[in-house]
Amino acid sequence: MVKGKIVIRKINCSKSRQVTFFKRRTGLFKKAKELSILCDAEIGLIIFSCTGKVYDFASTSMKSILERYGKVKQEVNNLPCMSALEMQSLRSETASLKLEISRLQESQRHLMGQELKEMRLEELNDLEAKLDTGLKNVRAQKDQIFKEEATELKEKTDRIEQENIELRRKLSEIMIQNNTKLKGEQGQADTRTRTSLGQKAEDASWSHRIIKAFTGRGSYQKQHYITGK
């Protein structure tokens, strides 16, 4: 069963009106407190009853809330007021922008191949020309990118090749230096060997001469002794 809509109107009975006021006031303050907690909102309520009493609720401080409200209200009042002519101009500009946005969105859908059935032959030809021009521009841009990438790749290849040539040159110089050093050390070793062998040969020659000299002298003395000469 559908509940009937309650008509909101003034309660004529003062006693019933007072009871309803206290119930609704309590519920309103409760809802305000829940809202301030759930949504971290700063809330201030001021109620004047029909009897002239004042009831208030503040989530923080009623004074700070009123000061904040007064500051915001003053800032709003200080804003320059727009004349009726300015408002009309603004509305007209807004409408023009909306139409332009709608036209651009429709053109975008046509470029995507959508909603073409309602277009006339002339419009389709114009769209085809735009697509051809766009396709040519896309291809030209792709070719430009490919050329730039090819040029960059060639520069990198040439740089690497030049680095390899320089590396081979340095390696060749190092090998030549090592061979020269090795030959020099080998030559010094051969010289020392020849010097040592020559010294040994000379020592042997001197030894042979000394032995021969002593041997010859002994033979001479022996012969002289035998012959008496």
Protein traits:
single chain, 229 residues, mainly alpha, SRF-like, two-stranded antiparallel ribbon, 4% strand, elongated, disordered C terminus, MADS-box transcription factor 23-like isoform X1, MADS-box/MEF2_TF, protein dimerization activity
Within CATH, the superfamily of the domain at 10-60 carries the name Transcription factor, MADS-box
Which class of secondary structure composition applies to the elements? mainly alpha
Query: Unreliable segments (pLDDT under 50, ≥5 consecutive)?
Result: 220-229
The residue-averaged pLDDT reads 82
Helix content: over 70%
Count of helical segments? 4
Placed side by side, the strands forming the largest sheet appear as 1-2
CATH architecture of the domain at 10-60: 3-Layer(aba) Sandwich
**Main β sheet profile:** 2 strands, antiparallel
> In whole angstroms, how far apart are the ends?
178 Å
What's the number of extended β-strand segments? Answer: 2
The top-level CATH class of the domain at 10-60 is Alpha Beta
Shape: elongated
Q: Find the CATH topology of the domain at 10-60.
A: SRF-like
Order of helices and strands: HEEHHH
| Percentage of residues in strands | under 5%
Q: Rg to the nearest angstrom? A: 58 Å
